[in-house]
């Protein structure tokens, strides 16, 4: 059983997405310098962002997983903003999507009017979008030393197409390997909602109505949630479970801690206050479904 972080308190269901865009304030000072740059310079001579990029070392690849409506987009937004304010160069992506072809494939695979789409076709669409994203965006960004945050990746395919749809897990794994071309996440944050699959689906579909996958039913989504638990249990070094059971800002701090060793910051010394989270949350609402490639 993997360690679950943040599993206490009430989930503030009353916190709604803000619909208006707002301008965030400029860079904050005071980010702790958790990781010594590898080029011999002292921490004071180099921002954390530079420390990954200036050494020519590969960046960090962090994926977010979880059921629909768990809170992935919310926490990616917070993490991206926090990293940027600490000087890191961040690329924010979602799957399926993130490329021109991937966004077109997303339209197809999520469109409820394609109700006859087979599980096999569905798998290949997700893998096609992924192969394009890896080649066109993720691999070059990592080579340039950037931090890549991706809303869903291969674990979603295991959870939805293998456990959910019932396709062969071995085949899905092979297809994932083929699409990823050797790229693997350094860390995966599994966001878990402390509610039932039914409530979680309601939360996911409240704003825009259900997409084709969200229409697959509560039993399907229960299997998906169980699959994520099984994946986390089988790979605890990579997958950290964060339960979004308290205020968004509290959950976000758990996420910041869950990626600390990957990005090299000291999560206990980060300078982000409630105002930071309120501002970041406002931007999140307006950008969520509109943009494919979010950097
Ligand atoms: N602690 C929390 N963490 C994240 N989201 C929360 C939390 N509490 C409530 N929510 C709400 O849950 C909804 C789904 O969040 P979202 O980030 O869009 O999920 P996902 O990307 O996993 O589908 C949003 O309306 C969000 O405001
Ligand atoms: C990446 C991926 C996503 N999916 C599903 C999960 C989601 O229901 C959907 C992506 O829609 P999206 O709106 O991005 O998800 P969320 O509601 O969690 O923010 O595609 C798969 O079935 N297989 C996959 O490989």
UniProtKB/TrEMBL annotation:
Query: Where is there biased composition of kind Polar residues?
Result: 31-41
* Pfam families for the chain: Thymidylate_kin (PF02223)
State the reactions this protein catalyses: dTMP + ATP = dTDP + ADP
InterPro entries, sorted: P-loop_NTPase, Thymidylate_kin-like_dom, Thymidylate_kin_CS, Thymidylate_kinase
Q: Which residues bind ATP?
A: 66-73
Annotated GO MF terms = ATP binding; dTMP kinase activity
Q: What class of enzyme is it?
A: transferase
Biased composition, class Low complexity, residue ranges = 14-30, 43-57
Q: Does the keyword Cytoplasm apply?
A: no
Keywords of the record, alphabetical order, are: ATP-binding, Kinase, Nucleotide biosynthesis, Nucleotide-binding, Transferase
Among the entry's GO cellular component annotations, what is one?
cytosol
Instruction: Please list the GO biological process terms of this entry.
Output: dTDP biosynthetic process; dTTP biosynthetic process; dUDP biosynthetic process
Q: Which residues form the Thymidylate kinase-like domain?
A: 64-247
- What PROSITE patterns does the record point to? THYMIDYLATE_KINASE
Query: In the UniProt record, does the keyword Methyltransferase occur?
Result: no
EC numbers, comma separated: 2.7.4.9
Question: Region labeled Disordered — which residues?
Answer: 1-65
Summary of the function given for this chain in its UniProt record: Phosphorylation of dTMP to form dTDP in both de novo and salvage pathways of dTTP synthesis.
Q: Which family does it belong to?
A: Belongs to the thymidylate kinase family.
Protein name in the entry: Thymidylate kinase
Q: Which organism is it from?
A: Cryptobacterium curtum (strain ATCC 700683 / DSM 15641 / CCUG 43107 / 12-3)
Kindly list the organism's lineage.
Bacteria, Bacillati, Actinomycetota, Coriobacteriia, Eggerthellales
Gene symbol? tmk
């Amino acid at each position: 059983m993997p360690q679950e972080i943040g599993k206490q308190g009430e989930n503030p269901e009353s916190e709604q997405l803000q619909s208006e865009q707002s301008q965030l304030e400029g860079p904050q000072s005071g980010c702790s310098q958790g990781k010594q740059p590898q080029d011999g310079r002292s921490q004071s001579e180099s921002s954390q962002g530079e420390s990954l990029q200036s050494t020519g070392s590969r960046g960090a690849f962090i994926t977010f997983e979880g059921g629909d409506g768990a809170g992935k987009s919310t926490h990616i937004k917070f993490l991206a903003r926090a990293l940027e304010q600490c000087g890191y160069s961040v690329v924010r992506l979602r799957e399926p999507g993130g490329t021109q072809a991937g966004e077109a494939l997303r339209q197809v695979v999520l469109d409820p009017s394609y109700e006859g789409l087979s599980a096999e076709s569905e798998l290949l669409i997700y893998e096609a979008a992924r192969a394009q994203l890896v080649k066109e965006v993720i691999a070059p960004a990592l080579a340039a030393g950037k931090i890549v945050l991706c809303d869903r990746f291969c674990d979603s395919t295991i959870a939805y197409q293998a456990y959910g749809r019932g396709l062969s897990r071995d085949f899905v794994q092979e297809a994932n390997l083929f699409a990823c071309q050797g790229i693997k996440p350094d860390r995966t944050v599994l966001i878990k909602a402390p509610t039932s699959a039914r409530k979680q689906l309601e939360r996911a579909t409240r704003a825009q109505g259900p997409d084709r996958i969200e229409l697959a039913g509560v039993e399907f989504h229960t299997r998906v949630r169980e699959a994520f638990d099984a994946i986390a249990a089988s790979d605890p070094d990579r997958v950290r479970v964060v339960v979004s059971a308290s205020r968004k800002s509290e959950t976000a701090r758990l996420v910041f801690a869950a990626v600390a060793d990957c990005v090299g910051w000291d999560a206990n010394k980060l300078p982000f206050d409630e105002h930071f989270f309120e501002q970041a949350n406002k931007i999140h609402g307006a950008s969520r479904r509109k943009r494919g490639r979010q950097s």
